[in-house]
Specification:
Layout: E1 2-5, E2 13-16, H1 39-62, H2 65-76, H3 80-88, E3 96-101, E4 104-110, E5 123-129
Antiparallel strand pairs: 1-2, 3-4, 4-5
Helix pairs in contact: 2-3
Length: about 130
């Protein structure tokens, strides 16, 4: 079947419509997924519980006004090494990466890598405001 459209400024345009439907239903087999294995997820949950405990210890120590003043003074002077030393003095069981700027501080606690599981599974980020 041919349908012709006429417009006063253009030549006739021919649009061919096929005599059979082009949107044929195609069969898509259902996707197959591997069986669920919760070992890695369970390990991640246990590791994150440790991060939460260590984060709580960090926050308790930062709640000490003398300690938090030392951290803020060192950060204000741009002494990253001193800030890192103060945070390490808390003796947390997990590594902590500290970054700061005039308006806040960020602590990133991550799980330890081990030879059996070289990839870190979890990270806990603590972002706190300490200035305008």
């Amino acid at each position: 079947m041919i349908i012709v459209y006429y417009h006063s400024y253009h030549y006739p345009a021919y649009h061919y419509l096929p005599s059979y439907p082009t949107n044929m239903m195609t069969f898509h087999p259902p996707r197959t997924y591997p069986p669920v294995d919760t070992k890695i997820f369970s390990h991640s949950i246990q590791s994150f519980k440790l991060l939460m405990q260590q984060g709580s210890i960090l926050l308790d120590r930062l709640g000490n006004l003398q300690f938090s003043k030392k951290v803020m003074d060192a950060a204000q002077q741009g002494k990253q090494d001193e800030v890192d030393r103060l945070i390490k003095s808390i003796s947390l069981k997990v590594p902590v990466k500290t970054t700061f700027n005039p308006s806040g501080v960020q602590f990133e606690l991550s799980t330890n890598s081990s030879p059996s599981s070289p990839n870190d599974c979890c990270t806990l980020n603590i972002n706190m405001k300490w200035g305008q």
